[in-house]
Amino acid sequence: MSQSRSRAADGHMLLLVVMYAAAFVAAFNENIVNVALIDIMGDLSVGATTAQWLITGYMVLASVITASMGYLSRRLSTRCLFFVAVASILVDEVLCMVAPTFEVLLVCRIIQAVGSGMLFPLMMNVVLAVAPRERMGFFLAIGGACITLGPAFGPVVSGLAATLFGWRAIFVVPAVAMAVLGGIGLKAVRNVSETSAAVLDVPSLVELAVGLTCFVYGLTELSTSVLLACGLLVAAAVVLALFVRRQGRIAEPLLDLRPMRNPRFWPACLLVVVAMMETFSMSVLLPLYFEGACGTSALVAGLLVLPAILGNAVTAVVGGRIMDGRGEWPLLPLGFALVLVGQLLVCAASPSMDMVLVMALTILVYAGVGLVFSPSQTAGLRTLPADEYPHGTALINTFVMVAASVGSSLFVGILSGAADAAAAGGATAAAAQASGFSVAVLVAAAIAAAGLALSFWYARAMRGESGTRVHG
Fold first, then answer.
1. Which residues contact 274 (CB under 8 A, 6 or more apart)?
2. Exposed, middle or buried: residue 65 (CB in 10 Å: 0-12, 13-18, 19+)?
3. Distance between terminal CA atoms of the chain?
4. Would you give the distance in Å from CA 11 to the centre of its chain?
5. pLDDT tens, position by position, 40-50
6. Is the distance from CB of 143 to CB of 126 less than 8 angstroms?
7. How confident is the model at residue 470 (pLDDT cuts 50, 70, 90)?
8. pLDDT tens per residue, range 367-389
């Protein structure tokens, strides 16, 4: 009996390692195009607005697939979902390498998002199914660290590949990694949940796709065409409201919103959104600051962000262990306080254009995010019954994808607007970029302050419930 349990535990561990690695590669794949946009624009003769769809289109479809994972998890087995995701990324990486036109590249790049949209919630569903409940925070934290580390290494590795071999080489690393994981997965990946004859509600899928497209595209237009952006955002609000209304009226919703009725779940979702926005604020703004204000290359800018990302991975694991041992209090307020203090210090230091100082202070921000991102997910998910885990993970990962889109569009728009205003006032190009960065980080600090207030209330409330249950 003990040998059987040991073999089962080894099988669970190998399954988790494969899922963690797949989530890392999927997250890595999200950001590989960013540093090669200039080269792609020149080689395929497209403008910046058109080329941007390689990123925007990817994020939209990934968000739609993520939101559909509640349905997909009911309809398809774990193995089927894993191999569909791996195949969609692997095949389209190869096609991207040889794409003769921008249109072909765009289609192949967007289809890759199917795999990314599946792998993040699939990894979390597997963790929830096989990890010991008393160590859920630790195992989810490892998954969160993988998703955080992926986008950090993406620009560095792809920037090096593009510099040495050209932009088509950026697709080689994720292609090879997915081929290896697919081979290992033949033995390691097994089914961990039951399937059913779930029915896909096509109108819901259309409403979600249209609503998210309008929302993300509207955000990207805020800094160039305010009128168009407002129209798109209004349209997005209307369509997404219709989507939410429909989910409550049909027997098999595409995105089951029942977990949002849980008063212990939805505040955790808001904390996850704030944490993701803080991550993307720094991940997007810092390279722009290092390149625009300090004059570094894209590769050096990516390397300067790495220490903070590595610090985030360490505190994520520490935060997961604390979450398992002590719960939400005082972990969540402490983490958000660290984010807030770090961003205020970065805001104050950025006009000096001291790269080392800004990099060191950024470590505080990322360390704070590491303490709150996965623990916030754990806090919400462990309040759900087991049959709602797929819906909870689909909701949280959808919020994460939307927050990533909001964070990047919002903060880049703020930086650009503030930098233009500073330049118009007579500042040099470098000083204007530093000023814009400072303003954008200050806005991010305000959002962190809201997260701190919410986390203080939520952690105290959850601590009180825990105490009540213990005494009861």
1. 336, 403, 447, 448, 450, 451, 454
2. buried
3. 36
4. 28
5. 888 888 776 67
6. no
7. very low
8. 999 899 888 988 888 888 877 88
Q: Contact at 8 Å (CB) between 145 and 302?
A: no
Count Cβ atoms within 10 A of the Cβ of residue 461 and give its class: 0-12 exposed, 13-18 middle, 19 or more buried.
middle
Give the pLDDT of residue 471: 41
Confidence check: pLDDT of 313 > 80: yes
Q: Which residues of 66-101 are buried (b: 16+ CB within 10 A; e: fewer)?
A: bbbbbbbbbbbbbeebbbbbbebbbbbbebbbebee
Whole-number Å distance between alpha carbons of 370 and 302? 19
In this model, does residue 243 exceed pLDDT 80? Answer: yes
State the Cα torsion 178-179-185-191 to the nearest 10°.
Answer: 60
Residue pair 113/62 in contact by the 8 Å Cβ criterion: yes
Distance CA 452, CA 332 (A): 8
Name the percent of the chain lying above pLDDT 70.
Answer: 93
Higher pLDDT, 37 or 66: 66
Q: How many CA atoms lie within 13 A of 180 on its CB side?
A: 11
- What the block records as the tokens of 278 is 């803080």
Residues whose CB is less than 8 angstroms from the CB of residue 468 and which lie 6 or more positions away in sequence, other chains included: none
Nearest to 204 by CA among 67, 393, 387: 67
Cβ pair 114, 67 in contact under 8 A: no
State which amino acid sits at residue 50.
Answer: T
Written as six digits, the tokens of 401 are 């994808």
Tokens of 153: 């290494």
If we measure between CA atoms, which residue out of 372, 441, 404, 152 comes closest to residue 280?
404
Helices (H), 331-428: 331-349, 355-381, 389-424
Q: Helix or strand or coil: residue 195? A: coil
